[in-house]
Amino acid sequence: MNSFINEPLGAIHTFAAVVALIIGAIVLASTKGNARHQTRGYTYIVSMLVINITAIPITNMSGNIGLFHLFILLSLPTTLLAIYYPLSARFSSKLPSSNNGNWLMQHFTFTYWSYVGLVATFVAEVMVRLPSIMLAAD
């Protein structure tokens, strides 16, 4: 546990996860569509990308790619789709006769699933690491 957090990559990963958990909750609970929402949303997306990228080389629990690495295959596309829909709507609205479709509902859906996955992974990490933390405290 200590080596995970004390390593620079682990520290970056952990910091980005804390930022994403806090900012994601604020984004989902606050008013949508204004500049503050967009800034917080971009912060959430960047922190989620940092989490996913830094998670790939972290293998110190088992020495191999594990179950948490498979979550990247769910988290990364969900996060990218959460930002894809508002960006595509913004750019396509500048085109004549564009049909934006239901981008808002898609954005909402993928953002929530991204955050649900983040919280689920946090709970799983705590459940995996808590016994070793408790043993180390004794």
UniProtKB/TrEMBL annotation:
Keyword Hydrolase: no
Short name of one Pfam family: DUF2306
Keywords of this entry: Membrane, Transmembrane, Transmembrane helix
Residue intervals passing through the bilayer: 12-29, 41-59, 65-87, 108-128
Keyword RNA-binding attributed: no
InterPro entries tied to this protein: DUF2306_membrane
Coiled-coil boundaries: none
Name assigned to this protein: DUF2306 domain-containing protein
Lineage of the species this protein comes from: Bacteria, Pseudomonadati, Pseudomonadota, Gammaproteobacteria, Alteromonadales
